[in-house]
Amino acid sequence: MKLKYKKLFLFTVFCTLSATMFAHGVDDATQAFLAGNKGIAFGPFLYIGAKHMITGYDHLLFLIGVIFFLYKKKEILIYISFFTLGHSATLLFGVLSDIQVNSYLIDAIIAASIIYKGFDNLGGFKQIFGKQPNTKIAVLIFGLFHGFGLATKLQEFKFDKEGLLVNLLGFNLGVEIGQFLALGVVLILFDFWRRHKSFMKFSKITNTVLMAAGFLLLAFQLTGYFLN
């Protein structure tokens, strides 16, 4: 049985690292649509937002860290609401105000948010600093940066500004739908995993892997920043 759980854990690590390396891209069809779209296109922007979030490994890794030790539905809802409030605000504000942020730097901060949450889950703040930061505020603040990441990704494409607000609302709603679907799957898996002793046994290793994925992303983004 132990060998079975080890294989399952290694498979999970492999999938996580594979997603880190290959996901979160914007396909050619989406790029072509954004470049050629004219006027209001609520439905397509909703679909693009949902797809972007589902393949958004950096956002999802952070959220996995956030809900890792949350067992009550009310707590999960509160924390996800803080994150949603943060990224919705800066997504809309960033695009509507045409605020340009270096994509490598903002993605580096998003990577740092993954490291932060993994470190927090390992009890690092209490052990090293003797104090636990307010997690809700941290999730809200990192949500703001995640929203700027989404805004920056959108602004890379010079799409038509006609119907911009409606299209942005569609994209943001799509992001929420994608987030809901992805987290739904994660919560189902967590609910199953938490019934077994392996959850607590591998919790430290899992959060260490989460931090490692964050450091990998951070190194990748900083390398891209300095090379470009």
Layout of strands and helices, then pairs:
Elements: H1 2-22, H2 28-36, H3 42-54, H4 57-67, H5 73-96, H6 103-121, H7 124-129, H8 135-155, H9 164-193, H10 198-227
Helix pairs in contact: 1-10, 3-9, 4-6, 4-9, 5-8, 5-9, 6-8, 6-10
Q: What does this protein look like?
A:
This protein has helices at 2-22, 28-36, 42-54, 57-67, 73-96, 103-121, 124-129, 135-155, 164-193, 198-227. The chain is globular, with a radius of gyration of 18 Å. The chain has one domain (28-227): Growth Hormone, Chain: A (Up-down Bundle). It is built from ten helices and no strands. With 228 residues, it is mostly helical.
Put the structure in a nutshell:
The chain has 228 residues and is mostly helical.
What string gives the helices and strands in order? Answer: HHHHHHHHHH
Radius of gyration: 18 Å
Structural class comes to: mainly alpha
The CATH topology is Growth Hormone, Chain: A
Main sheet summary: none
- In DSSP terms (H or I, runs of 4 or more residues), the helix count works out at 10
> What is the CATH level 1 assignment?
Mainly Alpha
